[in-house]
Design brief:
single chain, about 65% helix, elongated
Length: about 60
């Protein structure tokens, strides 16, 4: 798989995750809302993101 096609797939996956997050916001059933949020998080993680805004995975912490 070329880098360009992989980048396109990543963008599509992130767009799908965003769509699921928006659907979760509109969902009235709590179980459905949670299912959509969980699926969006899984897609973001699969696309290389942490799914957690504001956390840079490239930063290491010293003790």
């Amino acid at each position: 798989m070329s880098a360009a096609s992989e980048s396109g797939r990543t963008q599509q996956t992130r767009a799908r995750a965003q769509d699921l997050e928006q659907a979760a916001e509109r969902a009235t059933d709590p179980a459905e809302r949670q299912r959509l949020k969980d699926r969006a998080r899984q897609l973001k993680e699969h696309a290389g993101g942490t799914g957690k805004p504001g956390i840079d995975p490239t930063v290491s912490f010293r003790r």
